[in-house]
Antibiotic biosynthesis monooxygenase (Mycolicibacterium hodleri), 98 residues
Amino acid sequence: MTDGPLFLVVTIRPRLDRRAEAEAQLQSMRRNTLQEPGCVFMHLVQSQDDPDSWVMLEMFRSRAAWDEHMAQAYNVEGNEILEGLLREPSELRLFDEK
């Protein structure tokens, strides 16, 4: 782990019958996150060949900034809401810059 920026790739598989709710929840969380000083970017993208799998691409200034993000009430509550909207738990991968 470095003191530099932290990149995240989060694979999200919404329930097909609750896609709109899942997207609305994720976009709400994204809007809040973009206001955080430690967030550099956060994009919700959809695969061209698998539109039922989404990816959140994120960059935070540091691991500490991401830890602070994860503790925000809107994020904790939002992730609890998301649990019922997803087919399976999200896959979270963390990356350091080379």
User: Anything to note?
Assistant: Residues 19-33 form the longest helix (15 residues). DSSP finds three helices and four strands in the chain.
